[in-house]
Amino acid sequence: MLSSGINVLFDGINMQRLLIGLAVTVRIAFISIAISCILGVAIGMMRTSKSKIIAFIFKIYLELFRIIPILVWLFIFYFILPTDFNINLNAEVVAILVFSLWGTAEMSDIVRGSIISLPRHQVESGKALGLSNLQLYRYILVPQAIKRTIPATINLATRMVKTTTLLVMIGVIEVIKVGQQIIENANLENPMASFWIYGFIFFLYFIICYPLSKVSQKLERKWAS
C-alpha cells in the first residue's frame, strides 16, 4: 500500500511544484543570511565599543529576537503593520525582513564574541603601529574574528533554513505550502499522499541541512585543536 502511494510525487507537475517551492525556501534563506552577515558584522563591531548607550540599544534588540518567537514577529509584520500603519508588504518580503532582523541580531552577537575573544596584544600591537580604530578593525580584528565565526554562522544558516517551515503561516508558497496543496488535492484518491509528500520534503531539508551541520562540526574540531 505504501509503494502504491508514491505515484503522487510524479502525478502531473507535483515534483516540479515541490522543487519550485524548495527554491522559494532556499531563496528566502539565502538572501536573509547574506543580509544578516553584512549587517551582523557591522553591528558586531559597534557592540565592542565602550559606549553604554550603544551596548544597551543592541542588547535590547538581541533579546527581543531571542525572547519573542519568530512566528510572532512574522505575524506582527504581516498582519499588524498593514492594519495599524497601512503598510502593505508581500509575504516573501516580510519573511526576508523578519529573518534578516533575527539573523542580524544573532550574527552581531557571534561577531562581537569573536572579536572580544581575540588576544589583547592584537589591539595593543595595532595601536603601537599607529593604526586608527577603523584600520585596527579592518586589518587586524575583523579578518581574524571572521574565521572564528564561520562554524557559528553555518549553524545560524542551518537554523534559518529549518525555521522557514514557519512561513506557511503567512501564506508564503514555499515547499511546505506546496506540499499541503498537493495533499489536499490527492487525499481522496490517495490516502498515503501525506506520507510520501512530507517524506520527500523531509528528504529535501535533510540534504540541505545535514551537509551544513557536518561542515560546521568539522570546522569546530579543526579550529579547536
The percentage of residues in β strands lies in: under 5%
Report the strand count: 0
Q: Describe the oligomeric state of these chains in a short phrase.
A: single chain
What does the radius of gyration come to?
22 Å
Total helical segments: 8
Structural class: mainly alpha
How far apart lie the N and C ends?
Answer: 51 Å
Helix residue percentage: over 70%
- Estimate the mean pLDDT confidence: 87
- Uncertain segments: none
Q: Largest sheet, if any? A: none
Order of helices and strands: HHHHHHHH
Q: Which descriptor suits the 3D outline?
A: elongated
Q: Can you walk me through this structure?
A:
- The protein has helices at 14-46, 52-67, 70-85, 91-116, 120-128, 133-163, 175-186, 193-224.
- The relative contact order is 0.16.
- With 225 residues, it is mainly α.
- Helix 6 runs antiparallel to helix 8 (193-224).
- The radius of gyration is 22 Å and the shape is elongated.
Quick structural overview:
By secondary structure, this protein is mainly α. Helices cover 78% and strands 0% of the residues. The chain has helices at 14-46, 52-67, 70-85, 91-116, 120-128, 133-163, 175-186, 193-224.
Helix and strand arrangement:
Blueprint: H1 14-46, H2 52-67, H3 70-85, H4 91-116, H5 120-128, H6 133-163, H7 175-186, H8 193-224
Helix pairs in contact: 1-4, 1-6, 1-7, 2-4, 3-4, 4-6, 5-6, 6-8, 7-8
